[in-house]
Write a structure and sequence with these properties.
This is Amidase. It contains 11 helices and 11 strands. It is α/β, with parallel strands linked by helices. It has a single domain, classed as Alpha-Beta Complex (Amidase signature (AS) enzymes). The radius of gyration is 19 Å and the shape is globular. The chain starts with a strand and ends in a 5-residue tail after the last helix.
Amino acid sequence: MTSVIEALALGRGPKRVVIKDTIDIAGYPTRAGSAALAEAAPAERHAEIVARTLAAGYRLVGKANLHELAFGMTGLNAWTGTPANPRFPERIPGGSSSGSAAAVAAGLAEVGIGTDTGGSIRLPAACCGLYGLKPSFGRLDRRGVMPALSSLDCVGPIAADLEELIAFMAAVDPQFVAPRGGPRPRLGWLQVVADEAEQSAVEECLSASSLPTSPARLTLLDEAYKAAMAVINRETFDACAAWLDDDRLGADVAKRLRAAGQTTDAELHEAEAVRRGFAAEVDRLLETHDVLALPTLPHAPLTRAAAEAGEQDLTISALLRPFNLSGHPALTVPLAPRAGRPVAMQLVGRRGDDAAICRAASYLVDPARA
């Protein structure tokens, strides 16, 4: 399967993990799904997340495919092949951590490790009907992860089972305490622009849980999305511009990378001001709510046929990307499909309190607990 581009046999534990190919594994090249890095030298040491995963008793079974240079939302890859979406074959697998999600959905691993700079864990998880966690910024060590410098990117897990995801976080992060007991979380039902199918699915889930819920708003959400685009464009260009002259670079990524290079210092300065304002706004809202709930995606993901025909849809990350900018933890929770298409809910929590959104998800997945 093109979800896994290199088979591995590291570790002896019963639980299988696939690792996105932007994350170093000693003895293997890190190619980021790009022919431009085809001759990359093998990594000299494990990335910190790989070392922790092995130390926790997991078994690495594959390097996972991705959208080239982790700079795209469809998950398509002309060089390595595009992972199939096992649960929704007509839809894109989602990017950029497409292989990590597709491998888990196909039953090839219990956990897929991905990276999330603008939704790249949560989007493929949602597209493939899985759980995906973008931890608080800086929670999981990024040493040995491409790009080396990022103010947005987070390493995190994808799993088909919530308890599996929670167990992984507790295993690799000694500061993560698995959620147990305590008062019922207070939810803020975030008012956003999304299609009716997404809105109604989340509303039904919240109603079924009987958790205390009240409407909430983030006035800077749209501005935060635009600001996050400016930041990722500048940071990705700085990290990847060296490969622009390589004719092996995929045409779609090269085009987007050249456009990213046009990001001005003024745009970046404004984006940083929005970052501060939006992060403060989310913090204030979380003073009166334990967790914020909203659709993961504003609308259905592209069909694979449309994406292969060249259609792009960066706005699929409109409800994801803002929380990369602010640094808050965010978890996507799969809901029952609508009209044969994936639907998911996103939970956002206080910075550093990643366990709280996992706990809220437990209540929502099992309404009897509430």
